[in-house]
Amino acid sequence: MQARLHRLALIAAVVTLCVIVLGAWVRLSHAGLGCPDWPGCYGQLTWPGHHEEISAANQAFPERPVEVDKAWREMVHRYLAGALILLVLAINWLAWTGGRETRRYRGFAFLILVLIVFQAALGMWTVTLKLKPIVVMGHLLGGMATLALLSWLTFRSRPTPFHQGESLPLAVRSRRPLVVLALAVLITQIALGGWTSANYAALSCPDLPQCMGQWWPETNFREGFTLVREIGVDYEGGVLDHPSRAAIHLTHRIGAVITLVVLLSAGLALRRHRSLRTGATLLLAGVVAQFTLGVLNVLLFLPLPNAVAHNGVAALLIVILVWLLNRTSPQAPA
Questions:
Q1: DSSP code for 220
Q2: What are the pLDDT digits (tens) for 257-302?
Q3: Beta strands in the chain (DSSP E)
Q4: Does the pLDDT at position 108 exceed 90?
Q5: How far apart are the C-alpha atoms of 253 and 263, rounded to whole Å?
Q6: Is residue 279 a contact partner of residue 270, using CB atoms and an 8 Å limit?
Q7: Under DSSP, is residue 216 helix (H, G, I), strand (E, B) or coil?
Q8: Residue 267 host element (H or E)
């Protein structure tokens, strides 16, 4: 039964990664409000496609005329997210009915279920609150947290027929705080990236290494980092002025450099241990790729494939660090 739980957790983790990437594609292609209602789309289970359906939808939602290419993207994302909820329910069923073999995973499975239900609520509020930045950022972080927990469950539930009862050397386990630090820095940077995207500040500084031809242009950090704003405002396209968006963008840039330094340092230190070398190498390659994609986002004016890849690599870095966290756990087998 544990092997089944492991396979199901792995499938759910892969689906979560797909949901994150698809969600980034929806958001970055400006289709986040492709369906102005929830959970349906213009009152339908799918989306308006025929002329009569589009006409009826336009009459029912005159403030948001139908754009079919945006509507179907949003609904496909919702369908995939719905499939993920069913997978998490199945994980809980296995954890609670699997007897002694899966008993240890019950609390963790239930935690993932609570998170995925809250994530669904954030998805609803993203639409009903019209892309409110704090909700959009929270939805991104919720997706990353779901991926991290499902990855952890995948790694912890994997059957380990060899070296049962043997622990990793103390030198390896002592690297755990370094992995925790790297993970905390990465999560902070992802949150900054989510805030940058939610406030449409990604191109506020269209040049590198300066911003608008200056090393430090006019900025407004107080306004840029006001988390709670008015309800009822349509935040699509952003509502902040340029100094506020520049403050957000510059903070994300500084965070990118800090993240690069911390994760490179962590990867180089972890590579010294044979049992961590694969994960450390992937971490080094991933953070270099992520930094490069961030630079290209600016230089190429945020091309959609590059911007989506930037989100995807961030998610993969989460998985890599969770694997390293598992490998440096005191309970990890040698």
A1: -
A2: 999 999 999 999 999 999 999 999 999 999 999 999 999 999 999 9
A3: none
A4: yes
A5: 15
A6: yes
A7: coil
A8: helix 242-270
User: Residue 64: CB partners within 8 Å, gap ≥ 6?
Assistant: 33, 36
- Catalytic, 52? Answer no
Joined together, the tokens standing for residue 112 give 């993932």
Token pair, residue 130, equals 């019209």
Which residue among 63, 74, 166, 230 is the active-site one?
A: 74
For the record, the structure tokens of 65 come out as 């005329």
Judge contact between 151 and 209, C-beta under 8 A.
no
Q: At what angle do helices 277-299 and 242-270 cross, to 10 degrees?
A: 160
Tokens of 295: 């630079």
Predicted TM-score (pTM) of this structure: 0.94
178 exposure class (CB count in 10 Å sphere: 0-12, 13-18, 19+)? middle
User: Does residue 129 surpass a pLDDT of 70?
Assistant: yes
Which residues lie closer than 8 Å to 171 by C-beta, 6 or more apart? 273
**From residue 306, how far is each of 24, 43, 299, 321 by CA, in Å?**
11, 33, 11, 23
CA atoms 212, 217, 220, 225: torsion sign: positive
Would you state the structure tokens that stand for residue 244, as one six-digit string?
A: 């506020």
> Is 80 exceeded by the pLDDT of residue 104?
yes
The least confident of 37-51, 166-180, 190-204 is 166-180
What is the distance between the alpha carbons of residues 313 and 149, in angstroms, rounded to a whole number? 17
